[in-house]
């Protein structure tokens, strides 16, 4: 519905001041009706947006023209320094994330991230830069932080591969035979072939690892 204002003015020469007053009033009313039309248009637009966004999932703007916090993607709520896996070989341009590849980056450009990391992952030769964590080819383990499961670890430290100390009880290869009698006349009828020790297993791998899939770790910088 559009609001309209129609005014009929007597064109007789009497009362120029009255006619001018009527013209001024008409202009005021015309402006008021235009304002009502603008409000109605804005309401129609917002109703249309609500219907559109409800169906599409596109974030809606609040009365201040901003996206509400509850409408923001989850990633934007993550704190700077969060680490996540990314199933792409390269991050998109303008991303809030950096690859965890051990790169040196400018402190000034990524100061919020520098406040979190500092020199945790090594010192740069350039005092204006700091190092990102290098998680290429690595598994990540929760920091022990005094629990006693993985003792002696500094936060952010790397750990070499290792197999826990253990042993296997494996007998040698037994054989039967008759040896020469000893001084008491007893005969040896069995023994262990020490020249041919038994191995518990063979392998050609360079490390011990579980099944896995290679993806990129990335860290949030803003």
Topology, element by element:
Layout: H1 16-56, E1 83-86, E2 97-99, E3 104-106, H2 111-117, E4 129-131, E5 174-176, E6 190-192, E7 216-220
Antiparallel strand pairs: 1-7, 2-7, 3-4, 5-6
In short:
With 222 residues, the protein is of the alpha+beta class. 22% of the residues lie in helices and 11% in strands. The longest helix is centred in the first third of the chain and has 41 residues, at 16-56.
Shape: elongated
The percent range for strand residues is: 5-15%
Average predicted confidence as pLDDT: 77
Sheet with most strands: 3 strands, antiparallel
Radius of gyration: 40 Å
InterPro entries: Phage_tail_collar_dom, Phage_tail_collar_dom_sf
Pfam family, one: Collar
Protein name: Phage tail collar domain-containing protein
Structural description of this entry:
The chain has 222 residues and is an alpha+beta fold. 22% of the residues lie in helices and 11% in strands. Among the domains are: 16-69; 73-138 and 214-220, no CATH class. The chain has a 3-stranded antiparallel beta sheet, with no helix packed on it. It has a two-stranded antiparallel sheet with strand order 3-4. A two-stranded antiparallel ribbon has the order 5-6. The radius of gyration is 40 Å and the shape is elongated. The model has no long low-confidence stretch (mean pLDDT 77).
């Amino acid at each position: 519905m559009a609001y309209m204002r129609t005014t009929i003015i007597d064109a007789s020469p009497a009362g120029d001041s009255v006619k001018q007053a009527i013209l001024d009033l008409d202009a005021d009313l015309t402006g008021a009706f235009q304002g009502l039309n603008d409000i109605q248009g804005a309401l129609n637009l917002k109703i249309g947006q609500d219907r559109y966004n409800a169906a599409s999932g596109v974030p809606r703007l609040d009365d201040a023209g901003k996206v509400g916090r509850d409408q923001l993607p989850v990633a934007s709520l993550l704190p700077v320094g969060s680490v996540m896996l990314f199933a792409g070989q390269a991050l998109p341009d303008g991303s809030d994330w950096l690859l965890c590849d051990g790169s040196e980056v400018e402190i000034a450009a990524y100061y919020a991230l520098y406040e979190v990391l500092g020199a945790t992952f090594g010192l740069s030769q350039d005092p204006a830069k700091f190092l990102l964590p290098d998680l290429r080819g690595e598994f990540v383990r929760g920091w022990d932080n005094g629990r006693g499961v993985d003792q002696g670890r500094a936060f952010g430290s790397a750990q070499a591969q290792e197999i826990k100390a253990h042993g296997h009880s494996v007998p040698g290869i037994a054989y039967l035979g008759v040896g020469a009698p000893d001084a008491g006349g007893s005969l040896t009828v069995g023994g262990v072939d020490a020249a041919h020790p038994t191995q518990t297993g063979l392998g050609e791998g360079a490390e011990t690892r579980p099944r896995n899939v290679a993806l990129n770790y990335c860290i949030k910088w803003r």
